[in-house]
Write a structure and sequence with these properties.
- Keywords: Signal.
- The protein has a 9-stranded mixed beta sheet, with no helix packed on it.
- The longest helix is centred in the first third of the chain and has 17 residues.
- It has one domain.
- It is globular, with a radius of gyration of 16 Å.
- With about 140 residues, it is mainly beta.
Length: about 140
């Protein structure tokens, strides 16, 4: 099963790198992604203001208020029964972040992390200040 997931991830990621990212539009705000914690595997844009996106590698938004939804896949490592180590468990979550003050020409960074089974997301501005946090997390068992 892990081999199938690994192959699927490779195919998805190779498709992503096949086309370059579009040029940054100075009339829009750009949101990069990062997963700074171990176990974070995939962080992709899913929806912008409720509309599904074609390219999940980034968000580019107009000034003002927007709701961002991302897919965050991560592994949870832990001990099994009787103190034995078990295989990592896959976790798939959708995190929603709303920010009301996007500014054109600015770069933002959306970071998703997990503490065991609990995911979270923070949106940082160019000064590395937290401007928004996830307000909703839906995870698949």
């Amino acid at each position: 099963m892990r081999l199938h997931m690994l192959l699927l991830a490779f195919v998805v990621m190779s498709g992503c790198t096949a086309t370059p990212l579009p040029a940054v539009d100075s009339n829009m705000a750009w949101i990069d992604f990062a997963t700074p914690t171990p176990g974070g595997k995939v962080l992709m844009a899913e929806k912008l203001d409720g509309q599904r996106l074609r390219d999940g590698r980034f968000f580019q938004v107009s000034s003002g208020s927007h709701e961002l939804e991302v897919r965050f896949d991560f592994e949870v490592f832990g001990g099994g029964g009787l103190g034995l180590m078990s295989e990592p468990q896959e976790r798939l979550c959708y995190l929603t972040v709303r920010y009301d003050h996007f500014e054109a020409g600015q770069r933002y960074r959306l970071e998703a992390r997990n503490l065991a089974f609990t995911p979270s997301a923070r949106l940082y501005d160019a000064k590395r200040e937290i401007v928004a946090e996830d307000r909703q997390a839906r995870c698949m068992p």
